[in-house]
């Protein structure tokens, strides 16, 4: 295989191909996208969090998180609730259907993580993780 050091291009291509396939698999399993599943995963651990907290966790601006939550709410997977302490604040809660969808998506996501690691040695997996974490830190 020819050595290619166009890292931005390669990372973009890998991300595009991975998320295209992941979106297809998640739509089939639970009717949602990878971005939407990320919100459900976060809510599984932080159910009832503020909308602003979910936005920060997913690195989405106000418009993007509002649209994402709108779509999840329209599918019956989350509900908005006014915070008791501040009526301007909105808490996001998973519905039972949302919890079920999150569990279905987690199975699919684990399968994709395993597919990424397939054919790699433990050393290569460790190095790959380290490199990705360094890139994330460098550009954070």
What does this structure look like?
With 140 residues, this protein is mainly alpha-helical. The protein has one domain: Winged helix-like DNA-binding domain superfamily/Winged helix DNA-binding domain (Arc Repressor Mutant, subunit A), CATH 1.10.10. It has six helices and two strands; from the N terminus they run ααααββαα. The protein has helices at 7-30, 34-45, 51-58, 62-74, 96-117, 122-138; strands spanning 78-82, 90-94. A two-stranded antiparallel ribbon has the order 1-2. A hairpin with a 7-residue loop joins strand 1 (78-82) and strand 2 (90-94). Helix 2 crosses helix 5 (96-117). The chain is globular, with a radius of gyration of 17 Å. It starts with 6 loop residues before the first helix and ends with a helix. Keywords: DNA-binding, Transcription, Transcription regulation. This is Organic hydroperoxide resistance transcriptional regulator. Residues 4-137 form the HTH marR-type domain. GO terms for molecular function: DNA binding; DNA-binding transcription factor activity.
Give the SSE layout.
Blueprint: H1 7-30, H2 34-45, H3 51-58, H4 62-74, E1 78-82, E2 90-94, H5 96-117, H6 122-138
Antiparallel strand pairs: 1-2
Helix pairs in contact: 1-5, 2-5, 3-4
Number of domains: 1
Tally of contiguous helical segments: 6
CATH-defined topology:
Arc Repressor Mutant, subunit A
Helix content: 55-70%
Question: Which word captures the global form?
Answer: globular
N→C terminal distance? 32 Å
Can you count the beta strands?
2
pLDDT < 50 runs, ≥5 residues: none
Q: Label the structural class.
A: mainly alpha
CATH superfamily: Winged helix-like DNA-binding domain superfamily/Winged helix DNA-binding domain
Largest pleated sheet: 2 strands, antiparallel
């Amino acid at each position: 295989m020819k050595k290619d050091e166009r890292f931005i291009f390669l990372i973009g291509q890998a991300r595009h191909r991975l998320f295209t396939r992941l979106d297809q698999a998640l739509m089939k399993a639970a009717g949602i996208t990878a971005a939407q599943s990320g919100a459900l995963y976060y809510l599984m651990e932080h159910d009832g969090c503020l909308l602003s907290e979910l936005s920060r966790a997913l690195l989405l601006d106000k418009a993007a998180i509002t649209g994402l939550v709108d779509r999840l709410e329209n599918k019956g997977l989350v509900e908005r609730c006014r915070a008791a302490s501040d009526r301007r604040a909105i808490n996001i809660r998973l519905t039972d259907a949302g919890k079920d969808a999150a569990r279905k998506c987690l199975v699919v996501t684990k399968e994709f993580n395993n597919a990424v690691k397939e054919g790699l040695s433990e050393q290569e997996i460790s190095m790959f993780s380290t490199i990705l974490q360094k890139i994330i830190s460098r550009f954070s």
